[in-house]
Amino acid sequence: MTPRTRVAAALVASCLGLNSFDAGAEVEKVHLARLTAAAFTCGMWASMKGDKPRMKTLYEDGIRAGRDFLKAFRDNKVTQEDLNKHAPMAVLFLLEGPSDDFIVGRIFEAATNDAFDRIVKQDKNGVTVHASEWTHDDELKATLAQTRYQNANCDHVRY
């Protein structure tokens, strides 16, 4: 499994658990990592379905949540146990770089590429299909993105 595939698989798994937030304040900072990935994923689907204002809001929320998560991470306000238990694996793979904005950009790239691939390059079971079978029809992409957006409860993703 390539690193990109591991990151994509971890993003899929993290997005499936969007609604499983714990209540403890000590874990809240870790959930910002999940919120970051979810906001970027939902932002891509909002873009693909033609909702540019919602896309902009989600991307801005993802950037803010990512910066706040990384600050808490750097300030040791997040335990390794909480990271391992609650943060998306994909985010954990991407926590290195010259600056926090660079790292947030890496998370953005991984999340949006995965969201795009789920609409264009994968079948309904999440299996990557041959390039000749990719979805090229813009109307179909918008419909698929709308379905993904709704199923992931993206309207409830906010920071």
Work out the radius of gyration: 15 Å
What oligomerization state is this entry in? single chain
| Helix/strand order, N-terminal first | HHHHHHH
Mean pLDDT: 87
Structural class: mainly alpha
Shape: elongated
Stretches where pLDDT is under 50 for at least 5 consecutive residues are 1-23
Amino- and carboxy-terminal Cα gap: 33 Å
- Biggest sheet statistics: none
What is this entry, summarized?
The protein has helices at 3-16, 25-48, 52-74, 80-86, 89-93, 100-120, 138-151. The protein has 159 residues and is mainly alpha-helical.
Written description of the protein model:
This protein is mainly alpha-helical and 159 residues long. It is built from seven helices and no strands. Helix 1 (3-16) packs across helix 6. The radius of gyration is 15 Å and the shape is elongated.
Which key terms come to mind for this protein?
159 residues, mainly alpha, elongated
Topology:
Layout: H1 3-16, H2 25-48, H3 52-74, H4 80-86, H5 89-93, H6 100-120, H7 138-151
Helix pairs in contact: 1-6, 2-3, 2-6, 2-7, 3-6
